[in-house]
Structures are given as structure tokens and as C-alpha cells.
Amino acid sequence: MKKETYLKIMNKLENDELALYVSGFTTIFVFLIAVFYIILFGYQYFLSDKGFGFYVNPKDIKQINYVLVPLIGFIFVTIFRKKYNKQRPYELYEFTPLYRKYKNPAKRKHGQSFPSRHVYSAFAIGMACLSVNPIIGIGVLVMGFWLAIFRVVMGVHFPSDVIAGALIGIFLGLIGNFILPAIL
């Protein structure tokens, strides 16, 4: 997006109650996605068909991939972000991002905007959940979609950042949670 578009959004939300909702929903969605991921672990490792107790079948690649796919992707995205070090919209266009209006405005992250790790994580976790429970998976993916929109509206990411994060999460999730288990 262009500077004018971001400034128009920031001006519209500056004194608007909607700004507080966007910031709050972002935090809630991140929290809920983490909760669903923990529920996925709990279901797979403690309440599996083997009964209560810690159960990991090393031959069940799906169980291993619930951890490895998001983790490996997270490491890849983190390393790529540090190397690429793309500026964030608020740095490039010199405005205060929406979420910093409600938190410490002096504490801003610099660079490392592309791709969005929040959005990557949401979609990677959503794909893992989708492979176990389609209803929960779709719910997490929908929250990931809204998280992507809110990250752009808040001024912390460009649309290309969140699109790349979502595509990487979906791609790795498809390979790790659907294609590899079907092949192996």
C-alpha cells in the first residue's frame, strides 16, 4: 500500500473506538490460535486412542509434523526476515502504528517485516489443526485471515508481508500435514 493509504487508515482510526477493537482482536486471535495449538497437542499426545498418558508413535509422521512443520517454518521465516530485513510501513512512511498507540510508543520493532511471522504461524497451525479436526482448522484459518488484515490495518505489515506469511504457512502445512503422511 502507498503512504497515503496508510495515513488515511491511521487518521480514520486515530480517535476511533474501532482502533481499540482492532488492536484487541489481534491480541485475542493470537492467544486463541495458541490455545487451539495446545489443544491439538493435548488431544494427540494425552487423549489419543491409546488412552490417557503420554503417547507418541514415532512411526506416525502426523504427530511429529504437528511440531516440526510450524517449528521448521518459523525458523526459516525468522532467518529469512533477518537477512532480507524489509522495513515496516510505519518506518518507511514515518507514522505511529496503531497498536503502539495503546502500548509503549517508544518500543517499536525495526525491519524484519517480510514475511509476517504472526500470519505464518496462524496458517501453519491452522493447517495442522485442519488435518485433525476440519472445524477447528477452518476456525483457526479464518482467525489467521483476520489477523493478516488487522496486521496491515495496524500499520505493522504491508499486504505482501502477510500474503507471503499465509502462503508459506499453507504450503508447508499442506506438505507436512497432508502430502507427506499420505506418501509415507
Label the structural class.
mainly alpha
Architecture, according to CATH? Up-down Bundle
* 3D shape: globular
**How many helices does DSSP assign?**
7
**Any low-confidence stretches, pLDDT <50, length ≥5?**
none
Strand content: under 5%
Gist of the model:
The protein is built from 7 helices and no strands. By secondary structure, the chain is mainly alpha-helical. It has one domain: Phosphatidic acid phosphatase type 2/haloperoxidase (Vanadium-containing Chloroperoxidase, domain 1, Up-down Bundle), CATH 1.20.144.10.
Q: Can you describe this structure?
A:
The protein has helices spanning 3-13, 17-46, 61-84, 89-92, 117-132, 134-153, 159-183. With 184 residues, the protein is an all-alpha fold. It has a single domain (3-183), classed as Phosphatidic acid phosphatase type 2/haloperoxidase (Vanadium-containing Chloroperoxidase, domain 1), CATH 1.20.144.10. Helix 2 (17-46) packs antiparallel against helix 6, helix 3 (61-84) packs antiparallel against helix 7 and helix 5 (117-132) runs antiparallel to helix 6. It starts with a helix and ends with a helix.
List the helices and strands and how they pair.
Elements: H1 3-13, H2 17-46, H3 61-84, H4 89-92, H5 117-132, H6 134-153, H7 159-183
Helix pairs in contact: 2-5, 2-6, 3-5, 3-7, 5-6, 5-7, 6-7
Features:
184 residues, mainly alpha, Vanadium-containing Chloroperoxidase, domain 1, 7 helices
